[in-house]
Amino acid sequence: MTGPAGSLNYVRPTPTVFELEALEGLPCGCVTAAYRARPWDVSVVSVEAKGPHCILAGHTSGQILRLGDPEEFDDEGESDE
Fold first, then answer.
1. In the 8-state DSSP scheme, what is residue 6?
2. Which of 1, 28, 39, 74 supports an S-S bond with 54, CB 3.0-4.6 Å?
3. 57-81 confidence digits (pLDDT tens)
4. Dihedral of CA 21/24/52/47: which sign?
5. How far apart (Å, rounded) are the C-alpha atoms in residues 57 and 41?
6. What's the Rg (C-alpha) of the chain?
7. What's the whole-number mean pLDDT along residues 4-10?
8. How does DSSP classify residue 8?
9. How far is CA 25 from CA 21, 30, 55, in A?
């Protein structure tokens, strides 16, 4: 038995919580990602993929390396110039 089209279940899209800002490969072969958590305006840097030959115990996928104010991260990039 079928019902009217209005009776279909509808899932509302939710706003994106994390916005990808940058990806960076590390010398050990791991890949890190910098995200901005929009509701709280916090930057998160995490290991996204462990390199196949990485021997660093602290590098595991999903490992958060840094949390902080997005402006702090912006200042770091400017000092490298």
1. G
2. 28
3. 888 888 888 888 877 766 555 544 4
4. negative
5. 29
6. 19
7. 61
8. S
9. 14, 6, 15
DSSP 52: T
Please give the C-alpha separations between residue 19 and each of 6, 8, 52, 57, in angstroms, as whole numbers.
33, 31, 27, 27
Q: Which helix (H) or strand (E) holds 43?
A: strand 42-49
Closest CA to 54 of 33, 28, 32: 28
Residue type, 57: A
CB 54 within 8 A of CB 31: no
Beta carbons of 61 and 48 less than 8 angstroms apart = yes
Q: Which two tokens stand for residue 45?
A: 């840097």
User: Could you give the CA distance from residue 40 to residue 75 in angstroms, rounded to a whole number?
Assistant: 19
Amino acid in position 35: Y
